[in-house]
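ok trying this again, last paste got cut off
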Amino acid sequence: MPPASLPAAVALNGISYNIARSFGPAIGGIVVAMAGAVAAFALKRMVLPATADRTIPRSVSPSHRGCRANNWVTPLSQACAILPTRRRSKIVLTRTCLTGVIGGSISALMPLIAREYRVSQENARAFHNVMRDVQLLRQRNGAYGWSIARDIADPELWTERYHCPTWLDYLHQRNRSTKSERALDRRAAAFHAGPDPVRVRRMLERPFGSVRWKEDVPDYAASEIRPDNG
């Protein structure tokens, strides 16, 4: 690739990545809501060959058949040596790195939402039917891993759980609901017969390495106050 085309190529790659990250979950949610999770995986299986085709090595040009292929270390070291002299390339690559870090940090905040309902046993079937509509609503708005569970020891206790791709997606679901979505939520909440409001728990995924594992570095909870060392 000519050096002059590098900034445009990097920018185009960043644009395509952001478009895929924005529209991919939306398309997946629509497929799951309309045809189920099996259809979503089947669609992914159909698309994979086209993606893999881009990674298959092409035939070498006749003029380069006698040349020995370089390993990845050589072009990488050459790029690192040239980069300080290319101002435009440094700007584009810096913006790309910042976008990737910020986007990755937001994506790492994958909240789990849990709602606990108290429903009388005679209304259990009607409540379950309404929650099936709630399931479609959640999935249409991008949630995944939705489930409704009934406590074995306490049959009146029901728990709805679902994941959101990011914390920002959850805030969008909560703050940008439509009139029909709010009406459906009120229908589900009307079955709640407990003395207290429906309890909502919001949790964030804790990936491997996020919890302190050394004995001398305690893992503080959010409600704890760290000791003042100075």
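PB: full thing came through this time. Residues 3-51+78-107 form one domain.
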